[in-house]
Design goal:
The chain is α/β, with parallel strands linked by helices. The chain contains 14 helices and nine strands. The longest helix has 20 residues, at 332-351. The chain binds iron/sulfur cluster (2 copies).
Length: 380
């Protein structure tokens, strides 16, 4: 995995999505001093290419002045290595001024939209859709690339066809994320997507994608197919992310990933102390993540997909059980379902029948499905 540093300028967010855990808009904002410390830390920490992603909370709350100062500090401070920037934002606070700065650094934008306006606003709050679309128009007017991530919940799964058609009509790339149990509120499971339903959703999207090749891109399906074809993970969920991905919170604390920011048990160190990899490895959080990796080696040993799944996301596995490692990522069911489906179909396409290991014969009554091989040939 390439080296990835997520910068979290604030944990605050002006929105109040039902299944999110971010805090109020007034949450503290990273100072420019801390950005300078990030640069100093990275000068000695690792010297390879780095991708910075601004994440949150809502990173645009940091304002135009923050980005005007932070971006050249990062770019010039680490001059000589390959560098890329990205941002994940709901776009509400996008302005011409910010868009101009982002255009200078060619920053692609990831935003969040859960499908058609009514459905989106039901999950993310009234008025969300219009505010995001306003920011989207500003970003596009400055030539910025915007892609949306859709969170599928226990509610929106009922409208999966509407959501797919929404993206198809708009000619937008579809990327999805399953809602996780919330770490706040009295009903943590209320919006969470059941892992079995998640697996069926992925198979549904595989079918819809293959029916509409050339008209839409479904990023998750591309990644899942590439995992199977290449025999190794192509996104953080399906590799051992520890050591190649870090997040820096507003106060300079370093975490294994943006998802842990603000959780004291997951602090690996602080940029002001300029820790090396060996220093971070002494922290309890690092040791816990490492134990998870060892656990996966044992628990997933017999699974055909271990090399490109690696037990899924450690955050999903560890945080709901108060840091006790009891099992792998609860989405294991979904991963197995879709990886099995892709493997079986590829075997069918290549050898004209199901996997030899399964000892089955092709059912002549089963309708033949459009191919994954041709999709992959287009992509590779
Ligand atoms: S903890 Fe999960 S989301 Fe974060 S980098 Fe690792 S796999 Fe990705
Ligand atoms: S599919 Fe499940 S059992 Fe297989 S490697 Fe992934 S998490 Fe482990």
């Amino acid at each position: 995995m390439p080296f990835h540093v997520m910068l979290i300028p604030t944990l605050g967010c002006p929105s109040n999505c039902n299944y999110c855990w971010s805090s109020e808009e007034s949450s503290p904002i990273m100072s420019i001093e801390t950005v300078k410390e990030v640069v100093e830390w990275l000068r000695t920490f690792r010297n390879d290419s780095v991708t910075f992603t601004f994440h949150g909370g809502e990173p645009l709350l940091a304002g135009a002045d923050f980005f005007r100062e932070a971006l050249p500090l990062l770019a010039k401070g680490l001059d000589g290595r390959k560098m890329a920037f990205a941002i994940q934002t709901n776009l509400w606070k996008m302005t011409d001024e910010i868009a101009e700065i982002f255009a200078e650094y060619n920053i692609p934008i990831g935003s969040s939209l859960d499908g058609p306006e009514e459905l989106n606003d039901f999950q993310r709050g009234k008025g969300y859709y219009k505010k995001t679309m306003k920011g989207y128009e500003i970003a596009r007017a400055h030539g910025l690339t915007v892609r949306f991530i859709t969170t599928f919940t226990s509610h929106s799964i009922k409208y999966k066809e509407d959501i797919f058609n929404f993206y198809l009509d708009k000619e937008w790339t579809l990327k999805l994320h399953p809602a996780l149990p919330s770490l706040r509120g009295d009903e943590p499971e209320k919006w969470a997507l059941d892992p079995e339903e998640y697996g069926e959703l992925l198979v549904y999207l595989l079918d819809k994608y293959l029916e509409n090749v050339g008209k839409i891109e479904v990023m998750n399906i591309d990644h899942l197919c590439k995992c199977v074809f290449g025999g190794r993970g192509t996104v953080c969920t399906f590799v051992d992310c520890m050591g190649d991905t870090f997040a820096v919170g507003p106060d300079g604390n370093i975490y294994p990933c943006y998802r842990f920011v603000g959780m004291p048990k997951y602090v690996l160190g602080n940029v002001y102390d300029r820790p090396g990899m060996e220093d971070l490895a002494q922290s309890d959080a690092w040791k816990l993540m490492n134990r998870y990796k060892e656990y996966v080696d044992l628990k997933c040993k017999g699974c055909a997909h271990i090399n490109y799944c690696r037990g899924g996301c450690p955050y999903n596995a560890i945080t709901p059980t108060d840091e006790e490692i009891r099992d792998v990522d609860p989405h294991c069911v979904a991963y197995k379902r879709i990886f099995d489906e892709i493997t079986e179909r590829v075997n069918n396409e290549m050898f004209g029948g199901p996997s030899m290991e399964m000892g089955l014969f092709q059912d002549p009554m089963r309708p033949s499905k459009p191919g994954i091989m041709s999709l992959m040939l287009k992509k590779i």
